[in-house]
Amino acid sequence: MRLANRDARPVPWLPTGRTADAALAGGAFAVLAAMTLVSIHTGPPSRMPLYSWALLAVACGALYLRRSRPVAVAAVTLAACAVYYPVTEPDGPAVLTFVIALYTAAAEGHLIAAAVLAGIAVAGTVAADRRDDVNHLADAAGFLLIGWFVAVVAIGGVVRNRRAYLREAQERARVAERGREAEARRRAIEERLRIARELHDVLGHNISLINVQATAALHGLRREPQRAEDALTAIKQASKDVLREMRATLGVLRQVDEAAPVAPAPGLARLDELARGLAAAGLEIRTEAEGEPRPLPAETDLAAFRIVQEALTNVTRHSGAASAVVRVRYEADGVVVSVEDDGRPGSGTPSADGSGIRGMRERAEALGGGLVAGPGPDGGFTVRARLPL
Questions:
Q1: 339 forms bridges with which residues in the sheet?
Q2: Least confident span in 81-85, 134-138, 168-172
Q3: CA-CA distance, 382 to 279, in Å (whole number)?
Q4: pLDDT score recorded for residue 8
Q5: Average pLDDT value for residue range 372-387
Q6: Using N-to-C axis directions, what is the helix angle for 298-318 and 355-366, rounded to 10°?
Q7: DSSP-derived secondary structure for 346-359
Q8: Is it the case that residue 5 has pLDDT exceeding 60?
Q9: CA dihedral of 51, 52, 54, 59, whole degrees rounded to 10
Q10: CATH 3.30.565.10 domain residues, the chain
Q11: Which residues pair with 328 in a beta bridge?
Q12: Distance (Å, whole) CA 279 – CA 357
């Protein structure tokens, strides 16, 4: 693909477009005029009439329009040559203008028209030679012109096909580049969302615990010193936990040659540890399991834990609940986790469009599952997610 792009680039110091065509027309006239003058001065004494110079100028000047009107220019140069050669002595190489126009017509995709004009030129030349009773020369000239014009048309067709190939290759390269850029943007967005969810879950849960415990410590600092001490101990542990998980989460931003974090990713096996941390904040947690517990894929295990963690964090933030139930149900093709609290109906439960619920739903949907969150039938708030295996 790179070779195609490099071949398609013009040479910087060469003219292009109309400038190149004007230079070609002027250069062709200068070269043909010089060759004609040399032929006049070195051959038998002769003088080329003015109308022959005019025909030569018309044939060369027509080359200026060879790209915009390739077939018409080829026809004009052929007609000019047809008139020029019978009346001009010495005749000179005016046929080169027709050769250039014929090549351009073929290179621009007019192969049939180029072949027809080449056939007319060959037939006319052979007929003129036979009329002058120079049969041996007519045969030689005919074969020479046929080979010459066939080669010119063939070269033009090859150039046309190569240009089409280069354009197609460049278009494929542009499409592929756009696809790579779109894929890179998509992956970057997904990675940012994943990191945002991890940071939200890690920071949100532990900072909420720290906030609750700090409030309890302030209220009980003088009247209940033991309660304040317990709260400060819980703050210390929560701070330690958040630092540990922050190091593990930010490990995804490390360079390839840096050491990766060695702490295991959290999973459902840490539910009891999560419950103990929240119990220190005054929220009683009961965990229940249904079905046969079994190891889960790492991404499913992490998503289930984070959903439960975020749901319990929402309980401490928004609900007046004193207790919550965490249920884990193992199914043949998936796992279902749910969190139900006993808060009062409508007592500050989070709206369904909150960032926490949105993050939980994104986690579930990223694995092909789903999540439902809303008020429970008997009060409180319920979050239920199903993650397929």
A1: 326, 383
A2: 134-138
A3: 19
A4: 47
A5: 87
A6: 160
A7: TSSPPPTTSHHHHH
A8: no
A9: 140
A10: 283-389
A11: 289, 337
A12: 22
Show the tokens assigned to 25: 């027309």
Pairwise CA distance, residues 103 & 153, whole Å: 6
Contact between 278 and 294 (Cβ < 8 Å): no
| Strand 323-331, strand 284-290: pairing | parallel
pLDDT at 337: 94
Distance between CA atoms of residues 79 and 71, nearest Å? 12
For tokens 């045969």, name the residue. Answer: 139
Does CATH place domain 283-389 in 3.30.450.20? no
Distance CA 372, CA 382 (A): 8
Question: Whole-model pTM above 0.85?
Answer: no
pLDDT by residue (tens digit) across 320-344? 678 889 999 999 899 999 999 887 6
Residue type, 23: A
In 3D space, the residue among 304, 307, 295 whose CA is nearest the CA of residue 358 turns out to be 307
Amino acid identity at 303: A
Instruction: Using the structure block, give the residue that is written with the tokens 């360079």.
Output: 255
Contact 153, 119 (CB under 8 A): no
Alpha-carbon gap, residue 58 to 342, rounded angstroms: 98
Amino acid at 168: E
* pLDDT classification of 6: cutoffs 50, 70, 90: very low
Instruction: Tell me the pLDDT of the chain averaged across its residues.
Output: 79
